[in-house]
Amino acid sequence: MNKNKNLFYLLWSAAIVVCVVLAILALGISACAKQGGAEKPEETPGFTVESARPDPKAPAQSGETPAQETPATETPTPAPPTATPAPTRLAETPDAGREYLDKIIFLGDSTTYGIGVYYGFGYTELCPPEQVWTPASGTLTLSYYNIATIVYPETKEELTIEEAVKRAKPEILVITLGVNGIAFMDEEWFIRDYTSLVQLIQAASPDTKIILNSIYPVADSYKYQKDINNDKINAANTWIERIAADTGVRFLYSWETLAENGKLPESAQNGDGLHLNGESFTKVMQYIRTHSYQ
């Protein structure tokens, strides 16, 4: 019994010694592997910021399209010259004659209405009522451009401006508007509504040549200078010219054929200081003929 116990202790001791020796050997091997510093952490092989950028000179790998070298920069071929856009303001031209006036429809307020009226009074250098579009009242306010009606001369119907333009498709349309509007419309409102009117006409008759006429000056005798005066008129005429440029139509500066010292002479008005007389309309018609749409 004692012999068996001694043999057991001997074997157990030998096993412990073997384990200790193996542990010492393992520690020695691990220390050799770690010589020179800590272990390097693993990286995802083959992907870095730089490796994501292909080298254009490197040979293509199987299944890849070779990278192309960036071609040398070439001097671009200059574009052919474009036609110089026509100036917005109509310049002086040779007299286009009566034939030119006969092509025109005049759209406007009470300062346009007089063209047909004075023609009936014997001013035959003007244009007949058949070429004049105004409301039955004889006046038109810019802010009502999209709802106001004009008397369509051929049938005496009352049509909106859009309806009349679609039906007649005028060759040339001269618009004289805004003198009533400047009494209460600011620059933004004036430009917005006038621009919308021009665009409405362009959509209704794309081939119509549109001319925006300047507002005429007023005389000192005009009673309502607080609402309508030459300072406001001059400002509005600059807006109208800008509208013409922005919409690609023409501007007629007829103001200059009427004004003297920046205002309408008393001899040029019909009694109220605002509206032209027959002689003044004749001057405007001559100005239109010598500043024709080319």
Mind explaining what this structure looks like?
It is a single chain. By secondary structure, the chain is an alpha/beta fold. The protein has a domain at 97-289: SGNH hydrolase (Rossmann fold, 3-Layer(aba) Sandwich), CATH 3.40.50. It has eight helices and seven strands, in the order ααβαβββαβαβαβαα. 29% of the residues are buried. Residues 1-5 and 29-73 have low confidence and may be disordered.
What's the topology here?
Blueprint: H1 2-33, H2 97-101, E1 104-108, H3 110-120, E2 132-133, E3 149-152, E4 157-160, H4 161-168, E5 172-176, H5 187-204, E6 209-213, H6 230-247, E7 250-252, H7 255-258, H8 278-289
Helix pairs in contact: 5-6
**Outline:** globular
Task: List SSEs in N-to-C order.
Answer: HHEHEEEHEHEHEHH
Secondary structure: number of strands: 7
Strand content: 5-15%
Broad structural category? alpha/beta
Percent helix among the residues?
25-40%
Low-confidence parts, pLDDT < 50 over ≥5 residues? 1-5, 29-73
CATH H-level superfamily of the domain at 97-289: SGNH hydrolase
Defining key terms:
294 residues, alpha/beta, Rossmann fold, five-stranded parallel β-sheet, 8 helices, 37% helix, globular, disordered N terminus
Short structural description:
This protein is α/β, with parallel strands linked by helices and 294 residues long. Helices cover 37% and strands 10% of the residues. The protein has helices spanning 2-33, 97-101, 110-120, 161-168, 187-204, 230-247, 255-258, 278-289, and strands spanning 104-108, 132-133, 149-152, 157-160, 172-176, 209-213, 250-252.
